[in-house]
């Protein structure tokens, strides 16, 4: 009979670990809400039978950000809450989120922890309204808290709402969108999955409004010649994974200034690939790498962008009104909500109006490809049409977003007060 000594160890695969974490959080949440229920009852008794509502224990508004890179989306919203003198909790999973350095009076910024620690806080949140751009509510570790009345999701880009990993927005109560085509995609997903209709408000896009206003204050970049920005998404279907050295070599051969700005997730999910490419192509006269949290300056400097299915294509084309070159036929929809839809995602229909497609056969004459798109004056009309569809209520989105959140809070608290009478 084999004997297993005291130094034996066991392996828990990631799926099992996630399941165990979910079970643990479920048990902790049950205990938390059980105790809270009786604390509220005790307050009721000690007050002589007076009102001891659970709503008084809740934050009115919580904004959750899973990464510092979304501060450009949430900063204008936080500042509008501050301007109106409305109390807001801003929770972030990044310990270096720029929000933590702000000195607000009414907006309270807090680092709640990364990974499971952060999810544990979220799963026991007590709030009337929670706003986030993080998908996956009630799908993996992030579970709905029984003490949150209303979950609101805001897209972090103006592209397709069905571009998330599967089921990413199914279980939110409401969505804040920037165009009618996104509404159509969501309603089709709800129909196919037999889901109740979510509340949807078209508010526009706060970070594009702010970027637009900031751009108006910038001077033209001081440089000579053409600057090409390679700004891919991440994953096995993205440019760096598919083409890697080959596309970078082709761009260097043009003689133009080349800036490579990888998707922030690349540093996490494909760090080995990124390290190899950066070692092979260190910063120099012809090429540089950009990881700025704020992309305004690098987008302003570039004369043309090369990308794939990254949402940054719309930041560049709609705000800066410049042409793009995009790769085709590499987006695998299988992990995404897009796999459920018969029609192609809106963004893939609109790409041909914003720029020209690129395949590997063109790498040998990349300079001519770039020169051609820079000279194409017909693309401006396409950018104007895309802007009208994807960026409604231009310049009004921050006020509309906060108006929605405040009105929803008032609606929910009135309903609760009426139920307690």
Number of DSSP-assigned strands = 13
Q: Largest beta sheet, briefly?
A: 7 strands, parallel
Class of secondary structure makeup = alpha/beta
Mean pLDDT: 87
Give me the Rg, rounded.
24 Å
What is the string of helix and strand elements? HEHEEHEEEHEHEHHEHHEHEHEHEHHH
Low-confidence residue ranges? 1-15, 36-55
The spatial strand order of the largest sheet comes to: 3-2-1-4-5-6-7
Secondary-structure arrangement, i.e. CATH architecture of the largest domain: 3-Layer(aba) Sandwich
Range of strand content = 5-15%
Looking at the structure, the CATH topology of the largest domain is: Rossmann fold
Would you give an account of this structure?
- Strand 6 (174-177), helix 4 and strand 7 form a beta-alpha-beta unit.
- The protein is 42% helix and 14% strand.
- The protein has helices spanning 14-46, 71-84, 115-123, 180-193, 206-215, 239-242, 245-253, 266-269, 271-280, 296-301, 312-319, 346-354, 366-375, 379-390, 397-420, and strands at 59-65, 88-92, 107-111, 127-132, 148-154, 174-177, 199-202, 227-230, 257-260, 287-289, 304-307, 324-327, 355-358.
- Mean pLDDT is 87; it is low at 1-15 and 36-55.
- The radius of gyration is 24 Å and the shape is globular.
- The chain has 2 domains: 39-205 and 395-420, Rossmann fold; 212-390, 3-Layer(aba) Sandwich (Rossmann fold).
- Helix 2 crosses helix 5, helix 2 (71-84) packs across helix 15 and helix 12 (346-354) packs antiparallel against helix 14 (379-390).
